[in-house]
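hiii, so i know i said id send this last week but things got crazy w the move. better late than never?? heres the sequnce for the chain we talked about at the cafe, plus the structure i predicted for it. fair warning i was half asleep when i ran it
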Amino acid sequence: MGLTTQIGIMQGRLSSRIDGKIQAYPAKTWQKEFAIAKEIGYSAIEWIIEKPLEENALMSISGIKEINKVILYTGVKVDFVCADIFMQQPLIRMTEKIKEENKKCLEQILINSKAIGAIGVEIPFVDNSSIKTKLEIEELISVTKDAFKLAKEIGIKISLETDLNPEEFKRLLAKINLDHIMANYDIGNSASLGYDPIEELESYGQKILNVHVKDRKLGGTTVPLGTGNADIKCVFEKLSEMGYAGGITMQAARGEHDIAIAREQLTFTLEILKNI
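okay and structure toks below
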């Protein structure tokens, strides 16, 4: 069995930029994105959770009903939910009060994500929320313990995205040692950090739940697909060899004409997949 050709796209990529950000929740246009995604060939949208939570459709009962209605109407799913709120307010290095807020927030995200049929919730531990020490690994495990238990009970997976090197990330996943706690793999971020994709995938490839397609220069920012240091073809070849059956989500560079670029990025990715 080959890799999936059912490709998703990160929410907000099919709307005008919000306050000049590369990535943000499109509160006013999220419904339109589903129709556009269907029209240009994407099968899923990866939902973003960030502050302010009260503006996010996924965080209210009426919003969940509306999301399910749009999914049913368009056939475009939400397979993954990206909890970017934990970049704004990390799960580690916080006061006890904020830790308690974060725990409740994560549990609610899991419950609501399950209610729209999502496979998994992604928690980023990069940039502002990057794991720096062994003590922070212990803190991460302590803070997420109840959420990990809840995820198993309700039947949803959690994937962690980190900037740890391959061996460290492998050790972290082994320390957690739960089948439903997995990894999110970002092709571009790994290229920017100078990691060897073969070493990464051989270390923890069997634990990957979703792959973000992106290109970045070594030590630099996101660039158009095929112009940076990411070896996207190599990654997909190795994943295919390993029998990868998880998700693929476009999170590539933006430009002046987002919808046209999203279409081109899908074509670029499908062409690679077709030739594997």
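btw The radius of gyration is 18 Å. thought thatd interest u
miss u guys!!
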